[in-house]
Amino acid sequence: MEFIDFSALKRSRRIDLIFPDWKKGENVTFYSPHDDDAVLGAGYLIQAVSENGGRPFIIVFCRGDAGYSTAKAKATIVATRKEEAIRAYGELGVEKDAPYFVSETRMTVEKDLGVIALRNDEMVLYKKLFDTLIYKDRQGEIVKRPLIELPGRPFGLAHVAPANLEWVGLVNSVEKYGFFSIRLAEASANLEAAGDFSHNAGTYFYAPSDGEYVYAVRAYLYTWADYMTSTQLTFLPQGSFFYEKNAYVLFPWDDKTIPALDELARKLKNPLRVF
Q1: Does the residue 132 lie in any domain?
Q2: Are residues 52 and 154 in the same domain?
Q3: How many domains in the chain?
Q4: Which of 64, 219, 230, 256 is in the most buried spot, having the most CB atoms within 10 Å?
Q5: Which of 64, 80, 96 delimits the end of a domain?
Q6: What is the pLDDT of residues 211-254, one digit of tens each?
Q7: Cα 246 from Cα 268, distance rounded (Å)
Q8: What is the span of the domain harbouring residue 185?
Q9: pTM of the model
Q10: pLDDT tens per residue, range 27-42
Q11: What is the torsional sign of CA 22, 24, 29, 30?
């Protein structure tokens, strides 16, 4: 395999001609408008990254839902193109990651409000699918608890964790799988607010004994969460701004899950190289 730097009029069999100070284990992200653009425009380099001990990572922006050629294919074209893209990039050494999706939301308050809850990142899933809650705390420790309603607590509350955790999840410890939310970015601005704005902010897990769902909620403002304050309105002034970017992923549950979650979080937040 040979590399050419046309601007410097150099050629070499070493990948560091293209990526100076190359080290094994590098992550290289390729942004592809459509599913075939990266393989057509940079397929040789994708393969070179893999063969030189790096890990190529492909981000495709287009779902491909308009790429069908017959009316019958319209309903299946997205799944078909995804499967074909995974196979094609696999031939170049791209590993098949656990499937995930990224959600990015922004909210600006246009007039003064009184609210009892302000939340966006909320996972609502069937209770029969999960038995354990898990998260990584701010000190980097892994916390696991049974996903069971606590006696005397409101609304089926099972556990309260701090706000702004790197990731939280719900796990089935018998069938060995888990569903996780990874916090990629977050920002909030509360303009001209008096007092403690983030009242009862935190990460709340619910498993009501009389319900069929479990919940994991990351709340900015949550007076609703306590019996004593559940009807207490908190002032939210005009101009307040909230932004979140989260990734959601389903992983097998084993001794590799937590390292894989940490690696995916690092990769999505800070790709080491972008081509």
Answers
A1: yes
A2: no
A3: 2
A4: 219
A5: 96
A6: 999 989 888 778 787 777 778 888 888 888 889 898 888 888 99
A7: 10
A8: 102-269
A9: 0.66
A10: 888 888 888 999 999 9
A11: positive
